[in-house]
Amino acid sequence: MHQTTQLVMTLKYVLRSKGLTYSDVAAALELSEASVKRIFADESFSLKRLDQICQFLEMSIYELARLSAHQDQHPVTTLTVEQETALANEPRLLLCFYLLINGWTPSRIKKRLGMSATQTTGAITKLDRLKLIEHYSRNRIRLLTARTIAWRKAGPVRRLYEEQVKDEFLDADFETADGLLRFESAELSHSSMKIISRKIDKLVKEFDDLVELDMALPPEKKKSVGLLLAFRPWVFSLVTG
Predict the structure, then answer these.
(1) Pairing with 85, which of 2, 15, 18, 105 sits 20 to 30 Å away (CA)?
(2) Are the beta carbons of 56 and 25 closer than 8 angstroms?
(3) What are the backbone angles phi and psi of residue 19, rounded to the nearest 5°?
């Protein structure tokens, strides 16, 4: 796919995710809606116009390009057993790593976890030694992994935390304004099951896209959320018993 086309598709995606329309863009840029539609259709963006639209969407051109590349590949990293073991053995180190791959800076991590400067530097140094990040002067960080980590099925992290995560996540009231829980069971053909699986994969991709889109926002403008998806052949024990 041509890079310009990919950028335009990503712009359209950002507009949809924010609930905005061409009319909203036109009003912000003081153009007619027809002009905005023509710019998107012809993919005739000047750098100045692209920058104006990105500012309206509260993102930079760099962030747009990064999201566009992310949509195209969705990288996943699998850590070594040694890396996972080190993280599993130190919960605070695991939490620091989790926050870093979700866009937090060391200073914000220090404040969020109530750590001293020495403790924060120590954690960052350990992550650097584990080759999970590269630590530069002035606390600048470069991630050496993707944001999405494929934890080993029988690895140290999942053995230690998987059941705890499931129990804590499901032991809650999902009837709040930001909560949602649905459970459906029925009989489906094999082809229909494949369709559902593809739709779940698409939803996960959209979830990751939104995470990437919101990465640059400050923590106070975001809320930690969990998305649990499960789908398998299953018969309720009440029926089989």
Answers:
(1) 105
(2) yes
(3) 70, 30
